[in-house]
Design brief:
By secondary structure, the protein is of the alpha/beta class. The protein has one domain: 4-Layer Sandwich (Metallo-beta-lactamase, Chain A), CATH 3.60.15.10. The chain is 32% helix and 21% strand.
C-alpha cells in the first residue's frame, strides 16, 4: 500500500510537469495565413480553440472540469459573447478534453457534436480507453481519474462532416488512432486542428504516450497531411507549419522503408 502511494505521488508530479511543459517556439500564424479563422485559448492541460464562422463561432473542446472561469475570461478578452458560440466540437472522449463541457454548454447554449464512438462514454461521465504506450503512461494511468460531469451530445457523426451549416469553411474527419472517438478538423483556410492525433510539446512532434492503434495513427496523420494544411494546431503543444507534420510522416516512412 505504501509503495502504491509513492508511485501515485510520483505520477502526480510527472503529470503536473507534463501539463506545464514547454511548447517550444510557436509559429506566428499571421505570417503563414492572412485570413486565419482559428483562435487558440491556451489551457494548462488541453487547449481550447475557437473557429470563426460567418454567423458566430465554433468551439473545439472544453478542457478540464473547473476551466470555465478561464474560458469566460478568454471570451471576454476577445470580445466574444458566450451566445455567439453555436457549436462545440469534441475531438474525443478523454476527460481532459470534455471535463468542462457541461459547464460550457450551459454557459453558451451551444450544441455538442462528437463522433459516434464517444457518446457511450461521455454520457456516463467515463473516458474512452486511455491506452498507455510506455512506463510513464502506465504510471500516470494509476492516478485517480479527472472529475468530469456527464454530457449528452446533440449531434453524433460517423463519416466526414461538412461544417458549412455552422458557417465554417471546412470539414470534420474521423482520426481514430488516438482513440476510437477521435476526430480532426480541416479548414479551407489551410488550418488543421488535430486533437491528440499528434502532440507538439517542447518543440518536438510525437505520437505521445497514449494511443490505441499506432498504424491507424500514421494513417490519420497521412489523411491530415493530404489536405496540405499550412498550419497545424495541437491540443497538447504548440502550433506548427504543415510541412513540419508532413516531414514527420515522411521521416517515419523512410525509416520503415515504406
Amino acid at each position: 500500500m505504501k509503495r502504491k502511494g509513492i508511485l501515485i505521488m510520483v505520477a502526480a508530479v510527472l503529470l503536473l510537469s507534463a501539463g506545464c511543459g514547454s511548447e517550444g517556439e510557436e509559429v506566428d500564424v499571421s505570417e503563414v495565413i492572412s485570413d486565419s479563422i482559428v483562435t487558440k485559448i491556451p489551457m494548462k492541460y488541453s487547449h481550447v480553440f475557437l473557429i470563426r464562422g460567418s454567423g458566430g463561432y465554433v468551439m473545439v473542446d472544453a478542457a478540464t472540469e473547473g476551466s470555465l472561469p478561464e474560458i469566460e475570461s478568454a471570451l471576454t478578452g476577445l470580445g466574444i459573447s458566450p451566445d455567439e458560440i453555436g457549436l462545440i466540437i469534441l475531438t474525443h472522449g478523454h476527460k481532459d478534453h470534455y471535463g468542462g463541457l457541461k459547464a460550457v454548454k450551459e454557459l453558451t447554449g451551444a450544441e455538442v457534436l462528437c463522433h459516434e464512438n464517444a457518446p457511450s462514454y461521455i454520457r456516463k461521465a467515463e473516458s474512452e480507453p486511455v491506452v498507455a504506450q510506455n512506463f510513464l503512461g502506465r504510471l500516470l494511468n494509476r492516478l485517480p481519474e479527472l472529475p468530469s460531469p456527464a454530457v449528452e451530445p446533440d449531434i453524433v457523426i460517423r463519416n466526414e462532416t461538412d461544417l458549412a451549416p455552422w458557417g465554417v469553411p471546412g470539414r470534420i474527419i474521423s482520426t481514430p488512432g488516438h482513440s476510437i472517438g477521435s476526430v480532426s478538423i480541416l479548414l479551407e483556410t489551410g488550418e488543421a486542428l488535430v486533437g491528440d492525433t499528434v502532440r507538439g510539446e517542447s518543440g518536438k512532434i510525437s505520437l505521445g504516450m497514449f494511443y490505441e492503434e499506432e498504424e491507424q495513427l500514421w494513417k490519420d496523420i497521412a489523411a491530415v497531411t493530404a489536405a496540405e494544411p499550412k498550419v497545424v494546431y495541437f491540443s497538447h503543444g504548440g502550433i506548427i507549419r504543415g510541412e513540419e507534420l508532413a516531414a514527420f510522416l515522411e521521416n517515419r516512412t523512410v525509416r520503415q522503408g515504406l
